[in-house]
Amino acid sequence: MRPAMDLEHAANSFGEIASTRDLVAELLAAKRSVNTRGAYEKDLYDFFMTMTGQEPHPALVREFLRLNRFAAVAVVLKYKAKLIDKGLKEATINRRLAAIKSLVNFARKVGECEWSLVDVEGEKVVPYRDTTGFGRVASENVAAMQSVLSIPDRSTPQGKRDYAVLRLLWDNALRRGELGGANIGDFDPLARTLNIYGKGRGTQAQLIDLHSATADAISDWLSVRGAAMPQEPLFIALTKREYGLRLSGYAIYKLVFSTCSAAGIPKRISPHRIRHAAITTLLDASNGNTRMAQKLSRHTSSNVLNCYDDNRQSLQREASGLLAGLVR
Q1: Using CA atoms, how far apart are residues 312 and 306, in angstroms rounded to an integer?
Q2: CA 76 to CA 58: how far, in whole Å?
Q3: Which residue of 89, 136, 275, 325 has the smallest Cβ count within 10 Å?
Q4: Bridge-partner residues for 193, per DSSP?
């Protein structure tokens, strides 16, 4: 028989682990999204550097977590004031506060902290204030997108890839992360479907249908991509330095920006603006069918689609016009 465990020795061992644990690393490891991990790491780094002049090493993090509640809240509120003084946008401030709150909540769960930051409120944000794409009306969006799709040279591998990417951004209103995260095995050319991993869904795939033009564009790209396994990325970088790597969100942004610039689009267009354009144009073409638009956009809340529809119809402009016409 094995000897009985030395409980005193075990307790000492656990104590040593607790005293050396890296809570920031543990927090980041528990996040599924690569983007979330990267954002939290940067935001926590900024918090500790701003308030202490030091990187968030384990001992410093533990020192912060062992403050009393009032002192901790005061530190975070002072940090928030500094962010406001810098002129940062409300969404950026809220994201950085969310990273700190997430660290504190995680520490509470594992017994390394006894308070919360519930008293630290975020900034009020007006969601989806600007839902325009290339322009305000559907006809402008359609004309602009037709120009953009004419730019890629589809006789070249890069042109085939770029054309397929642009079609997915428009035809299916994909987000950058959804597009960049797709693998070869997620695409079914016969069924004309694609599995995507949407925002906030973790490893749960969502099957979307593709138009024949979109499916053909992807197949055309895969015909020149080269032999690859199902688990390899659907879209890859083609530069010498990064050839074969998964096409990053930044690379997709650059692809969209450069193509739209080449098409003579004066507005600064991002992948998300194409998504806005697709949703707004669909609402216009379907006479405001928000249910259809919700299926396309995969928004969990229909209230978001109401914002799109209100902006599309320019109700405030119409209301102001009616009032102005009543007086002389």
Answers
A1: 10
A2: 18
A3: 325
A4: 188, 209
Please name the residues in contact with 35: beta carbons below 8 A apart, sequence gap of 6 or more: 177, 249
Q: Give per-residue pLDDT as tens, 48-78.
A: 999 999 999 999 999 999 999 999 999 999 9
φ/ψ of 201, rounded to 5, equals: -105, 0
Overall residue count recorded for the chain in this entry:
328
Question: What Cα–Cα distance (Å) separates residue 209 from each residue in 76, 146, 213, 275?
Answer: 46, 21, 12, 17
What phi, psi does 183 have (nearest 5°)?
Answer: -105, 165
CB burial string 312-325: b at 16+ within 10 A, e below: beeeeeeeeeeeee
What number of other Cβ atoms are within 10 A of residue 124's Cβ?
Answer: 7
Residues 6+ apart with CB under 8 A from 247: 165, 179, 180, 233, 235, 236, 237, 255
pTM attached to this predicted model: 0.66
227: left (phi over 0), alpha (psi -120 to 50) or beta: beta
Q: Say whether pLDDT at 152 is over 50.
A: yes
Q: Classify the phi-psi angles of 275: left when phi > 0, otherwise alpha if psi is within -120 to 50, otherwise beta.
A: alpha
243-288 per-position pLDDT tens digit = 999 999 999 999 999 999 999 999 999 999 999 889 888 888 888 7
User: From residue 22, how far is each of 58, 68, 98 by CA, in Å?
Assistant: 5, 20, 19
